[in-house]
Specification:
Radius of gyration: 18 Å
Shape: elongated
Helix content: over 70%
Distance between the termini: 28 Å
Number of domains: 1
Structural class: mainly alpha
Number of helices: 6
Order of helices and strands: HHHHHH
């Protein structure tokens, strides 16, 4: 391989690495938000309360709404890219999940569930990464 070939291959390798990292992030987000979304949308509040104390302080309808929103975000962060149908929607879904996790972090702090805050922050950062990486500007 000569210097010209190496210089030409480097952007492709970095794009491939970014694409792999984005796919991994999307799959993690899908799995986490599908599981938590289904739980919040379907489980009795009494069963959720031991692991999510905040659910007892809000209406059950809000818990169900958040569950449906998380499940929708999980599907939205994965399916558009996987099916190549309107792939730009994955970026918007990830942005929505990043906003949800920012709010979740605030709730963690407000309710004293500080042990959950780092998880919320990491998931929010992962969602922000996907929102950026799958945006039409980056994917061009």
């Amino acid at each position: 391989m000569n210097a010209a070939t190496a210089a030409h291959d480097s952007p492709n390798r970095s794009h491939d690495a970014l694409n792999v990292a984005l796919w991994i992030a999307q799959l993690v987000l899908f799995m986490v938000f599908a599981m938590t979304g289904i739980a919040k949308a379907t489980m009795p509040i009494a069963r959720l309360a031991p692991i999510m104390a905040w659910v007892t302080g809000v209406s059950p309808a809000l818990v169900r709404f958040i569950g449906v929103a998380e499940l929708s975000g999980a599907l939205g962060v994965l399916l558009p890219t996987a099916t190549r149908v309107r792939p730009g929607l994955a970026s918007l879904a990830a942005l929505g999940l990043a906003i949800v996790m920012t709010l979740a972090t605030a709730v963690n702090v407000a309710t004293g569930e500080l042990a959950h805050a780092p998880v919320s922050l990491v998931l929010g950062a992962l969602a922000a990464f996907v929102a950026w990486g799958r945006s039409p500007v980056v994917e061009g």
